[in-house]
């Protein structure tokens, strides 16, 4: 058996040039790997914010002011939109506050908040109270006065009390109904707590004789008298029906 032995070269310490080259190479490899991964960025007062360009992120960007009541983020435009939000599946812009308005809009010459929808199944604006209060509160005052308290269990509440021409809620239609109320159960389509003024006639459709009303009430209605003639009638709590007039 023949055994061949290859002698190993004498080991030498690396030169300074080799050590420096290896270090630089390691730094370059670390920098290249860092470019490909996202790391959290924290900033404080006076730190710069990059302006312009488009950026993509899988986590939110948050600005926090824990010192005073100053605005955290302000968008200003001299001719366009100050702040815009866009989403294909959720709210474009959302606001939240634990003690004040979640979103506040103000304009010195135009609309404070405007809502517009091109969909044909959803409203342009939605006010939803989940605490049994008022969904939408509309107030007209002469000056920056505090609004009235929101009534309980109310979908829409309108308030105005400047003078005799003030209107809490106004509805208008050229050919349809300016105001439309509907009751599907035992309630009433409309309720007036006070005097009622009408500048034109009151038109009543024929119906079957209604049930007698509760105490201290009367029900005015029109019905067919069985011979094709319309009768104007009133029914009292006792059930008595009084015919006021019959079509001739």
Overview of this protein structure:
This protein is mainly beta and 248 residues long. Among the domains are: 128-173, no CATH class; 202-248, no CATH class. It is built from one helix and five strands. A three-stranded antiparallel beta sheet has the order 3-4-5, with no helix packed on it. It has a two-stranded parallel ribbon with strand order 1-2. The longest helix is centred in the first third of the chain and has 20 residues, at 16-35. The termini are far apart. Residues 1-8 have low confidence and may be disordered.
Secondary structure: elements and pairs:
Blueprint: H1 16-35, E1 134-140, E2 154-160, E3 219-224, E4 230-235, E5 241-246
Parallel strand pairs: 1-2
Antiparallel strand pairs: 3-4, 4-5
